[in-house]
Design a protein that fits this description.
single chain, about 160 residues, mainly alpha, elongated
Length: about 160
Amino acid sequence: MEERRIHQIFEISVLLKGAHALLECAGGVALWLIGTETISKLVNTLTQEELVEDPKDFLARHLLTWAQGFSIETQHFYAFYLLSHGVVKLLLVAGLLRNKLWAYPASLVVLGLFIVYQLYRFSYTGGWGLIVLSVFDIVVMWLIWHEYGIVRRHLAGPDPSVRT
């Protein structure tokens, strides 16, 4: 694949990471501002009709059980997690899009840590979305590594051993 195409895929993947980070920030702020009672009422309203039709509806029952057990501590944890995760990724995305040299290795380390945590969470939850996200992160890491090599070579200038 030609370098220009790889660079375009790199930019698109970084922009997708940025969009995901913005959603995480918005979700974190929303969780911080919305009370657990409001969340419970909202889930109750959304599942009520479905449970009247089918009292054994798997998804509706699990959502309702989750909302009823959603504590303030859990709410604060998820709000902090989403907001901090989003802010860190936004800083890294900004650095990558501006070709800041520090952003490449920092992004590799942070994404690597996120993957480890996602796989740890998968071992407890079995949520396949975490695997999909981890695979996407691995692809993005390869693109960052590839782009980092190009940026370093460009900054180093022409090879003095090559005569023109």
